[in-house]
Amino acid sequence: MALSLKNSINIKKKNRIIDKITRGGLLIPTILSASFVILIVFFVSMRGVSPFLNSQYGELSVDFIRFISGTTWYISPNIYGIFYIIINTLYVVILAALLAVPVSIFTALFIAKMTPRLISGFFKTVVELLAAVPSIVFGVFGLGVITGIVKNIAELFGTQTAGGISTLSTVIVLAIMIIPTITLLAVTAINAVEKDLEENSLALGATKMQTLFKVTLVKSKSGIFAGIILGIGRALGEATAVSMVAGNSGTGPNFNIFNTTRTLTSTMLLGLKETTGLDYDIRFSVGIVLIVLIILTNLILNFAKKKIGRFS
Amino acid sequence: MKKFIIILSLFMVLGLTACGETTTEATTAAPTTEAPTTTVEEFNTNASIQIYTRDTTSGTREAFFKGIDFSDAVDDNQFLATGYVEVDGNGSMISSVNGDEFGIGYVSLSSLEESGLIGLNFEGVEPTEANVLNDTYGLKRPFNYIVRDDWTGMETEEQIVKAFLAYMGTIDGKATIQANSGILSIETTDQSWDDIKANYPVCSADNSAVTINFGGSTSVEKIARALSEEFSGKCGNFIADHNHTGSGDGYKRTQGEEADGANKIHIGFASRGLKLDSSEPAVTGTYGQICWDAVVIVVNGVNNVIANITTEDIKKIYDGTFTTWSDLLA
């Protein structure tokens, strides 16, 4: 009796030590990944601040007020302006979200609720594959296919586009890119709704459709919103595909969907490989603005998510 | 694996239909839901000219705007007509103009043939490599080299640089230049490096402690890097240090005011002719031409209204004086 008690104490002690070691082992990679974020922000900030410092570029230093409020990207030698680029970025992302959100939610409903398990599994795999397609592929697809379609749409309206390179093409490419992100999270959220709740609704005499839209969707909207936040994050940060179909207009802002546009990411990417000096460093300044913009957007959306989640 | 391929192909088919869905959704906003069937058979000259340009860091852009006498626009977009499209590479330029029947742009001559675009005659001269080499085609610039004149205290470096210059004239060197879009003619009489390397004993020694500084034009950087990387292996593994800052520094840092400063280089490059009479009086025998770089103005394959363009007209297109194709043809 006494022996077995001693034994069990020993085992408990041993387990505790293993717990401690495991915790230590997990801590190291956590610190590592957190420090990468800090390193990146630090590095981008260091370079991004330098264009505005007299000590770095002397007479060529950039006027920050003009930088943040300007409506022309570049006037030689040192006048940069990104106000219109910020506005255009937000405009494009909002339009893409408006296009992608309904499509994603309906896709998710269909996958989660409307199909037999075998077919829904297949569709889910397809959407997952779409989520894994690299952005350059979307860019090539956008330039090869979507711009052609947009060109024809513009012709219907009697407008001439630059071969379809336009805000609308950018919006469509971004929408296709974020649809899988939103859909997959929405599927998870919808599947997480308690069966009892839906059965209660059906028992009360509600039709299947009423249950789907008034119970299931309402109950899962917090999770769906999390998907939308992720999707918008991806859209804001997307560079390669966007810079291929946006047209990179030099002035703005532009709200005509058939005209060219420019986003913060495409501005950073364009010419990055060839340029040097001030023109190189200013791209890091744009990077800081983009990081701030993404953080702000996430904060606002998370706030909205909490508000919406409260009424479920 | 088989399963994966099946899923992948299904995904591709579905991907296409899914895209079709998205776009029909967009078209429902249009007054008519009919699919657009306008195929351009006759070129509509009332359409606007859509100009395409490379971004301000591009060497092709520099060559183009300098070549059409529009230097203001080399690194400043504000002089361009509004509504231009800025693309980030030769490839994007080609696919963009290919997708726009009313577009006009410029690509490097070496990529014209496979682009599917129409290259316009410039001032009546057809854009071919032969016409560049016989100096009749105007939209081009020379790539020149310039080396130090004063080699005091750098005898090994001098030997290596001399060997490097000789290497640029060999079949091996010329092939590398050509592969990096430089235009030159390779003659059957050209020697190969193996034929002449006996004349350069420095290359059979171990030069891994010697650093050769390259500099000057950024446009020539790609060719210079390819050459130095290749030649280092053939000449005792010397270290090639490239610091390209612009054509002006090519002369300045070899024979000009910075020739003995901290930034001094052993060999410099210029993507333009040297100003021998004024600010860059290089010593005879220390400079020469490597190859040509040529730009060609391109339009879409369906554009049959124009085959030739003048300096004046192309400038008026890019500065916005001409807005439609009929303006240009008038």
Task: Write down the Rg of chain A.
Answer: 25 Å
Please give the count of helices of chain A. 12
The portion of residues forming beta strands of chain B comes to 15-25%
- Category from helices, strands and their pairing of chain B: alpha/beta
The percentage helix of chain B is 25-40%
Percent strand of chain A equals under 5%
Would you tell me the overall average pLDDT of chain A?
86
CATH topology of the largest domain in chain A: MetI-like fold
Helix content of chain A: over 70%
Number of domains of chain B: 2
Query: What distance lies between the first and last C-alpha atoms of chain B, to the nearest angstrom?
Result: 62 Å
**pLDDT average of chain B, as an integer?**
83
Total strands of chain B: the figure is: 11
Helix and strand arrangement:
The complex is a heterodimer of chains A (312) and B (330).
Chain A: H1 2-49, H2 54-57, H3 64-69, E1 74-75, E2 79-80, H4 83-114, H5 117-131, H6 135-156, H7 167-191, H8 195-203, H9 208-237, H10 240-245, H11 264-269, H12 277-310
Antiparallel strand pairs in A: 1-2
Helix pairs in contact in A: 1-12, 4-5, 4-7, 4-9, 5-7, 6-7, 7-9, 8-9, 9-12
Chain B: H1 2-27, E1 50-54, H2 59-67, E2 85-87, H3 90-98, E3 103-108, E4 118-119, E5 121-122, H4 129-133, E6 140-147, H5 155-168, H6 171-179, H7 193-196, E7 211-216, H8 221-234, E8 239-244, H9 247-252, E9 267-270, E10 287-299, E11 308-309, H10 311-318, H11 325-329
Parallel strand pairs in B: 1-2, 1-3, 5-11, 7-8, 7-9
Antiparallel strand pairs in B: 3-10, 4-10, 6-9, 6-10
Structure description:
- In chain A, 76% of the residues lie in helices and 1% in strands.
- Chain A has twelve helices and two strands; from the N terminus they run H-H-H-E-E-H-H-H-H-H-H-H-H-H.
- Chain B folds into two domains: 46-140 and 294-328, Periplasmic binding protein-like II (D-Maltodextrin-Binding Protein, domain 2), CATH 3.40.190.10; 142-293, D-Maltodextrin-Binding Protein, domain 2 (3-Layer(aba) Sandwich).
- Helices cover 33% and strands 17% of the residues of chain B.
- The longest helix of chain B is centred in the first third of the chain and has 26 residues, at 2-27.
- At the A-B interface, strand 1, helix 5, helix 6 and helix 7 of A face helix 1, strand 2 and helix 3 of B.
